Predict the 3D structure of the following.
Amino acid sequence: MLNPGTLHRGSKLAVASHNEGKVRELGELFAPYGIACVSAGSLGLAEPEETGESFEANALIKARAAAQSARLLAIADDSGLEVEALGGQPGVQSARWGGPGRDFDLAMARVYDELSATGGAYTRANFTCALALAAPSGEEIVTTGRVYGKIVWPPRGSRGFGYDPIFVPDGYRETFGEMDPALKNRLSHRMRAFEKLIAATYSNDE
Ligand code: IMP
């Protein structure tokens, strides 16, 4: 278990992700705390196989592997879109619905097609994010955040990444793909998991 004080101003974190959208959003979340993020790509870290059945399990697999190879504290994000009428799919398969080329036009079209096949009237969905922080010593923590909303079609907006153009969070009219990234960062599943992680592991005492 990691404690307040594990993270502090001046900490350096390996980000166990090759997804540029996630690396950018995590860097933006940690920067105000004086924590620097280095990407797995720039550290030459391999991508472990995500064999877990939950977001939490996959986040831990990635954070542990990165902490061991980089000998640094490592942060991993496992996240995805859960569509209620599809029984929570694509869920942990969210990246895989984009096929080998991670084509999210294809993945969004599959969500639309499968939702249409259910009648298409019930569009509730959420993004979920599990964030795992692992130390080279083997200590670790995982937190989870969700943002609820609905699926819209056709896709709108070219900001953000992944399924952002078809997701409208509750209380807003814009999709995550249209929204100012600063606003998405304030509302998002990633921010909610991040706030819990900071509460459990950050201290600004020198
Ligand atoms: P992972 O790398 O297995 O965690 O893949 C997560 C996938 O979920 C990403 O490739 C995106 O397709 C999707 N996803 C996660 N977070 C977001 C988000 O904030 N916006 C849009 N799509 C997301």
